[in-house]
Amino acid sequence: MELTIAHIKEILKDKNKDGSAETLLGEIAFQNRDALKSIADSTKGVTRSNTKWRRCEYIFIEIRPEETISLDTCLKGWKALAQSHGDQTLILEESYANWSIYNYKSEIIGHNHELEQLIKKLSENRRQGNFKNNSPSKSSFIKQHRKYFSALRTKPFMLLAGISGTGKSRIVREFAFKSCPKELQDKDGTEPDNFCMIEVKPNWHDSTELLGYWSNLNKRYMFTKFTKFLVKAKMYPNVPFFVCLDEMNLAPVEQYFAEFLSVLETRTHPNNEKEIRTGSLVDKEYFRIFSAIENTHNKETGEPALKYKNDKEIYQALFGLKEADLNGIDETNATKTTLLDTGLTLPENVLVIGTVNMDDTTHQFSRKVIDRAMTIEMNGGALTDIFSDKDDLTYTEKPLTMDDLHAEYISAKEVIKNCSAVTGNEDILKYIKGETEDGLPQRLEEINKALYGTPFMVSYRVMNELTIYLAVLLDKAKEDGQEISLDVCKQFANTAIDRILLMKILPRVEGDDEMFRISEKERTAYGFSDQADDGHEITKLDWLRQIAPQHTEDNKDSYMAVDKLSEMIERLNRQSFTRFWP
Questions:
Q1: Beta 213-215 vs 220-222: how paired, if at all?
Q2: N or C: which end of the chain has fewer CB within 10 A?
Q3: What SS3 state is found at 403?
Q4: Vertex 50, ends 171 and 99: CA angle to 5°?
C-alpha cells in the first residue's frame, strides 16, 4: 500500500470540510506538526471544546517539506493532549511516507506495517457503514462518569437516589453495556449477560428471595437469579458484572439484605494477595448436596460422590449449558473448587447498585445501610435531553474491564502501604495519617465537632473510606501523568471530603430544629452568633456548611456538598424539619 498522506486521505477522507472521517471507533483528523507545537507551547493547558480535531480517535500528523518542528516538540504536544483523554492514537509521519504509531502514553505501538492494517480496518468499517458517532470512547465514558467510577472503586455497593424517572436503573444498564465483551452480548442488543435486574418486592422480609433457601419438599437448595448470577460472574473474573436492585427500599433493606451487608464487610486481601475474598453468602454444603450423585459414596472418604467436581461444572449445571456454550470463560478460574470448598462468596467483579425512591410507598434507610454504601443523588439532566439522538445502551468495541473498576484498597492501612503517591512522599504520608495540624483525620474530626450531640457523628468506617476514596483520586491523577505534591494532594482531599459528605455523611442526617440547635456552650467556644445574615437561626447545618469545601462561580461542579447543605438548611427554615433525601 502506498503510504503517502495524499493516498491515505483519498482512502479515509470524507466530505467534511475539515477533513475528518467518521469510523467505528470515532473520528479521524489530519493535521501538520504546527498543531502539536501550539499545544506544546501553550501555558493555558489543553482545551478540546472549541477544536474538533483534538477530540478525534486517530490523529494523522504529516511532515512538510523543509520541516522545522522537531519530533520531541510533537511528542510533548501529544502527551499534553492525550494525557486526559486515553485511547487516542497518534500516527506521525517521521519522514516522507515513513510512519510511527503512538498510543496515548506516547509509546510506539507500530510503524508502516501496522498502519497498513489499521487503514484497511478503518476503510472496511467505513465501507460497511459501521459508524458509531454517538457512542463515546472508553476514556470519555470514564471521564463523563468519573464520580461513579471513583465510588465503585472505593466500595462495590452503591445507592442511586432521586425522584422517579431520572434514569437511575438506566445508568446501571449503561455500565453493563459499556463493559460487556462480545461473548456475553445478546443478539438483539437489549440485555447484556453481565447485567442482572432484581425487582425488589414489598413483601421481602428475609433473604430467601435474594439468596435462596433449603427446600425440605425438594430436598435441595433453591438457587435464585441473584445467586446464579454470582456463580456466572466467577467464570469471567475480568468482566464487571452489575446487579441492579430496582426500587431497593420497597421492602425493609435491613431485613432482606442483612447477610449481604455483613459479608460485604468481610472483604480482605488474604496474605497480601491481589484477589479480594469475602465470607460466604451460600454455604458450601448446599453446593455439595447439589453436586452429589444420589446413593453413591467415595470409597476412601465415605463422602457422597460428586457429579460436578469444580466451579465450571456447577455453573454449567445451574444454567443448563453445554461445553460449546462456554465462550470466553477463564479456564484457570473456572476449574477451581471454591464453591465446593468455601461456598459462594462475593466475587470482586460484582458491583451491586440499588435504586432508591424516598416517598410514602418506601422504607427509610437505617444508618447501618447508608454507612456501608456509596450514595449518589441523581436529579436528571435538562428535559430537552430527551430529544437527543445519543444512544447510551449500545455495546462498544473496547469494553470496560475490571482494570477500570478494580478496588485496589480495602483499608486505610493498605493505602499507607501501597499507594505510590503516598509512599513516595513523606509529607503526604504524614498528612493522611494525621501527623500534621491540618491532616486528613483532623478534617473529619472538624465535621464530627459540628455533629456532636447528634446521632450522625461518623467513625472509623467513614474515615477508612475517605482515605480509600482519596487514594483512588490520587492513583487516577498519577496515571494521567499529573505530578502529586502535598498541595495537589490537599486539593484532591477537598474533593474526597466533598464526595464523602454527599455519599456517606449527609444521607444519614435528618431531624427538626431541636436536633440541629447549637448549644450555648458551643456558641461561646466556637464564636457563633445567634443569627445568620438572612435572619435564620444558625444551626449545626450552617456549621457544617462552613466546614465543607467551598466553591466559586467557576467551579460549582467541583464541590457540591455546600449547595446540598444550603438546600437542607432552607428546608429546615421553611418546614422545621429537614433531611438529605428529596
A1: antiparallel
A2: N
A3: helix
A4: 95
Q: In angstroms, rounded to a whole number, what is the distance separating the alpha carbons of residues 253 and 200?
A: 10
User: What single letter denotes the amino acid at residue 473?
Assistant: L
Residues 221 and 213: beta-carbon distance below 8 Å: yes
231-242 burial, b for 16+ CB within 10 Å, e for fewer? bbbbbbbebbbb
Give the separation between CA 242 and CA 352, rounded to whole angstroms.
6
Backbone angles phi, psi at 467, to 5 degrees: -65, -45
Q: Report pLDDT for 22.
A: 45
Determine if residue 333 is left, alpha or beta; phi over 0 gives left, psi from -120 to 50 gives alpha, anything else beta. Answer: alpha
φ/ψ region of 578 (left if φ > 0, alpha if ψ in -120 to 50, else beta) reads: beta
**What average pLDDT does the chain have?**
88
| Section 292-298 average pLDDT | 83
Residue 550 identity: Q
Question: What is the helix (H) or strand (E) element at residue 20, kind and residue range?
Answer: none
Distance, C-alpha 92 to centroid of its chain = 34
Helix (H) or strand (E) holding 30: strand 27-32
Q: Is 496 exposed, middle or buried (0-12, 13-18, 19+ CB in 10 A)?
A: buried
Collapsing DSSP to helix, strand or coil, 139 comes out as helix
The grid cell for 111 is: 510503524
Handedness of CA 478, 482, 487, 493 (dihedral sign): negative
Q: How long a stretch of residues is the chain? A: 582
Residue 144: exposure state from Cβ atoms within 10 A (0-12, 13-18, ≥19)? exposed
Q: 465 in helix, strand or coil?
A: helix
Query: What is d(CA 429, CA 439) in angstroms, rounded to the nearest whole number?
Result: 10
What pTM value is reported for the model?
A: 0.76
Higher pLDDT, 466 or 295: 466
The set of residues, in sequence order, having a beta carbon less than 8 Å from that of 7 and lying 6+ positions away, is: 1
Q: CA-CA distance, 175 to 463, in Å (whole number)? A: 28
Yes or no: say if 372 and 118 are a contact pair by the CB < 8 Å rule. Answer: no
Neighbour tally for 23: CB within 10 Å: 23
Q: How many other β-carbons are positioned within 10 Å of the β-carbon of residue 93?
A: 22
Give φ, ψ of 366 to 5 degrees.
Answer: -80, 165
- The owner of cell 507551547 is 41
* Structure confidence at residue 262 (pLDDT): 96
Give percent of the chain with pLDDT exceeding 90.
62
Would you state the cell numbers that stand for residue 116, as one nine-digit string?
497498513
Q: Pull the grid cell for residue 257.
A: 439484605
Band the pLDDT of 573: cuts 50, 70, 90.
Answer: very high
* List of E strands, 72-224: 89-95, 98-102, 108-110, 157-161, 195-199, 213-215, 220-222
Q: Which pLDDT score is estimated for 49?
A: 38
